[in-house]
Amino acid sequence: MDISSRIKKLGNFFETMQVVPGDNGRQLIYVIVNFPPEWPVDEESAKKRNVTVANGSEVGQYIFCTDINTGDEAVFDSIDENIEKVKEAMERARLLKEKTQQLRKMFEDESISIDKLSKVKFVFDGEEPAEEVIITKPSSDKK
Hints:
Shape: elongated
CATH architecture: 2-Layer Sandwich
Number of helices: 4
Number of strands: 4
Order of helices and strands: HEEHEEHH
CATH class: Alpha Beta
């Protein structure tokens, strides 16, 4: 993927990209991104690609930097991976909240016996349950 495509992929997260002189005559490439303030940055993942991450001048702003010989791909890959990890964590949190609410409703439904609740099993779609799975339909008068 060329640089312009990588920048477009970052969308509103992208602020700037530059190649600048570094120590000992080598050149550095850096990309500045603006993430939401609550987003963490996985510096360890970036280090595996020889990319350094530094805080920018504003909250949520980060600078991903590497030697020009390492290449822009390493910088953009680090940024992309960070975005993917944060979005996955957000989706996991959303799913946990959703499933917790479903369970809470089921356990609050007094029409479901304690015996049945004690036999609740978790099975992923497409998997065969090891034992019988009891799925109850929530009563329509409960909300």
